[in-house]
Design a protein that fits this description.
Elements lengths: L4 E4 L5 H10 L6 H10 L1 E6 L5 E10 L3 E9 L8 H13 L3 E6 L4 H6 L3 E12 L13 E4 L5 H12 L4 H9 L1 E8 L2 E11 L2 E9 L2 H14 L3 E7 L3 H9 L3 E11 L10 E4 L7
Parallel strand pairs: 4-5, 10-11
Antiparallel strand pairs: 1-2, 2-3, 3-4, 5-12, 6-11, 6-12, 7-8, 8-9, 9-10, 10-13
Helix pairs in contact: 1-2
This protein binds coenzyme A.
Length: 281
């Protein structure tokens, strides 16, 4: 154990990181690793020969809050304390910030030992849409494509629902993707972004004043894309989730939201109904 080393992740380690997520059959591509790498701070544990045995990341949202993710250890090296080593590095590096993550079943015990407590659940919805027809009347929202000129306004509005600013995350997602924004009575009422990720498209974030509006926005994005869609949706967003199920984008897995410290305060009627990723939240 003493021969292992813990150090910051470098760009050169990304191929090894990809190997680790492929070993878990997680659908990350190198581009997905790159997005998460550029936005966050990664740690690796290596064997004496320098081979990467595990990774963990954290993403700062100001100096009070951060998310944690991409915690993954080589299947042949699990149960040897590497996950704990990585989490210790992340927790020390993140300082006094409250930390949030979305935990697989395998990770729960480790995170509990690190002081995380469960607070809700996220359903991973995945599938190709069987229809792109809007099922509902939605109350007069006006929808348009997001342009880079909209970003600052959307980011300010988003910060009230998310609980803190995340302009750099939204800019990075938009740069490699597209978005739809909804206004009602001339005011912003919701938006969603979509990008290539994993085996198809990931739609997230999805933020809206109500789930019916979220359905309208997501429908517009689905109409613009094809293939497998992924959305990570809070378990209690039952209207949105029920609609996703009805069009073939089924819940294939559920994961626990875990917090160490204080969760972000929500300061608007709008709600985050879809995650950028389980790592970035
Ligand atoms: C979850 C994971 C990162 C843990 O890493 P690890 O190196 O195996 O964990 P450690 O050896 O540091 O163990 C830390 C603690 O968790 C416990 N633990 C680890 N894996 C466990 C498992 N599958 N079941 C029960 N307990 C487990 C260990 O017993 C240890 O507790 P202890 O100190 O009381 O013995 C690793 O198993 C993994 O990569 N899993 C697949 C990917 C994944 O699901 N990652 C989490 C994403 S949120």
């Amino acid at each position: 154990m003493t021969e292992m080393s813990t150090r910051r992740m470098q760009k050169e380690d990304l191929a090894e990181g990809l190997r680790l997520t492929q070993a878990q059959s997680w659908a990350y591509r190198l581009e997905d690793w790159l997005l998460h790498f550029h936005l966050g701070r990664g740690w690796v544990v290596c064997d004496p020969g320098g081979r990467v045995l595990g990774t963990a990341f954290w993403w700062p949202y100001g100096d009070q809050f951060a998310t944690v993710g991409l915690v993954v250890v080589d299947p042949h090296q699990q149960g040897k304390g590497i996950g704990r080593r990585l989490m210790n590095a992340v927790m020390e590096d993140a300082g006094a910030r409250s930390l949030q993550l979305v935990s697989t079943r395998a990770g729960r015990r480790l995170y509990e030992q690190c002081g995380f407590r469960e607070q809700g659940a996220i359903c991973q919805h995945l599938g190709a849409a069987t229809t792109t027809t809007l099922p509902l009347k939605t109350g007069g929202a006006s929808l348009s494509a997001v342009t880079s000129a909209d970003l600052e306004t959307i980011a300010q509005w988003d910060a009230m629902a998310f609980g803190t600013g995340r302009t750099s995350v939204l800019a990075a997602v938009l740069a490699g993707g597209e978005g739809v924004v909804a206004t009602r009575h001339g005011r912003l009422a919701g938006y969603a972004l979509a990008r290539d990720a994993g085996r198809g498209t990931t739609i997230g974030p999805v933020v809206a004043e109500d789930e019916t509006l979220a359905i309208e926005i997501v429908t517009r994005l689905i109409q613009r894309r094809s293939g497998i869609m992924r959305l990570d949706v809070p378990e209690d967003a039952t209207v949105l989730r029920g609609w996703l199920e009805s069009i073939g984008i089924a819940c294939v897995d559920t994961a626990a939201v875990m917090i160490r410290g204080t969760s972000l305060p929500r300061r608007s009627a709008a709600r985050v109904l879809g995650l950028v990723s389980q790592a970035l939240t």
